Amino acid sequence: MLGREFRISTGKEYNNIYKGGKRIPGRYIILFYQPNSLGINRFGVVTSKKVGKAVTRNQAKRRLREIIKKNELDKKGFDIIIVARYNIGGVTSELLEKDFKIVTKKAGLW
Fold first, then answer.
1. Domain holding 44: CATH number?
2. Contacts of 75-78 spanning 24+ positions with Cβ under 8 A
3. pLDDT tens-digit profile of 8-64?
4. pTM of the full predicted structure?
């Protein structure tokens, strides 16, 4: 579990990042990011009902959070939202991690 200081918590913050941030699509995830003034990276993980039922959505969120903890980014000071795409359900963790690395490199966060 990500610590409280590393999470994006309010809906207002999510909306600000969606509107003012940049969007990088990947095969299994979409990354939204925007600089913050905190000096640390904060993350939010979003899955919609298109992903599947509650069990599948929660599993996807757990897998994404584990990938975030495992792969620490080089650049600090960003708010990052990871949105799971509809096809994330049947994907192995290795492919999901590879997609995360590709998307974060495109964003310049490595």
1. 3.30.230.10
2. 75/41, 75/108, 75/109, 75/110, 76/39, 76/40, 76/41, 77/35, 77/36, 77/37, 77/38, 77/39, 77/40, 77/41, 78/33, 78/34, 78/35, 78/36, 78/41, 78/42, 78/109
3. 989 999 999 999 999 999 999 999 999 999 999 999 999 999 999 999 999 999 999
4. 0.92
Structure tokens of 10? 């309010």
What's the total number of domains in the chain? 1
CB-based contact 22:104 (threshold 8 Å) = no
Q: Which domain holds residue 82?
A: 4-107
Contact assessment for residue 28 and residue 95, using Cβ atoms and an 8 Å cutoff: yes
